Amino acid sequence: MINLCNPETYFVPYLFQKHGGDPGKFDADIDQLFNDFDSMPFQLYSRAMGKPVMTRADFEQLRCAQTWSDAFEIIFRFYSDDGTDAQGLWGDKTPPYVLEMDLLKKIFPTARFLHIIRDPRDVAVSAHRAWGHNVLRVAKKWARDMHAAHQSAPNLGTDYLSVYYESLLEDPETELRRISEFLEQPFDNIMMTLNVPSENLGSAKGKRQIDQCNFGKYRQALTPQRQKRIEEIVFDVIEDTPYEMEYANRHKPLSKPALVGLTVADGLKSMAHVVRRRGLVNGVRVTIGRRIQKKRNSH
């Protein structure tokens, strides 16, 4: 049994870097830690989903924690589908944590990292359809994430496994058996079917079965010029992947002014997306909370 914290957390590096010091010693001020935790977008999303959320009284459980790993495990298990009674392994599927794997390994010494890699051209199309994000900036983020993974993977050794999204779709049983072996968990055919849809946005929205055709859609969605520009942006980190460049023959990154402009535009689109779903006040709170987390995580 693997219990995933739901929704995605995002807060682990932020809270540790603000309140921690030694990963092996949990001595944070519980009041201050809870105040910061309770202001995170994670709490807002949990409330909006109708899930029970930790109160200040619940946070008293953290006094039993000896390490930061112990403390976060108490939080993660509370928010898993089985709540505080959750047994077995626990995990998190926050995508930006690929940038924090070295830090997370210090906080969670026994952690293992499963990195699902998808064709950057399809990633760009998917993000544009779901949130309206600019495909070139999405490509830049994909390249950044891959660079971070290439740097961290040697440090993690056998505790890191990369799996290509397309391989998972084409031969799910083989890949799921490989993942199960990596996690030292028994494979079960039930893994081939979802109890609930895994996505509420994009082409996978509402689906309970593996969509084995959900790749290569960029060929219909992108113009050759746009596709070439995406390939140029990711060119220097794609060599060790199965993805073949169809137009680009060199690396040509985004200029800094262009990246700044696209980042601002995408930030406004993200805020508008959250405002539509959560209302003006909560939308602004989530946006500010995300910026605070990203700013501290980048230090």
Automatic annotation (TrEMBL):
Highest rank taxon of the organism: Bacteria
InterPro entries recorded: P-loop_NTPase (IPR027417)
One Pfam family here: Sulfotransfer_3
Keyword annotations of the record: Transferase
One MF term in the entry's GO annotations: transferase activity
Protein name, entry field: Sulfotransferase domain protein
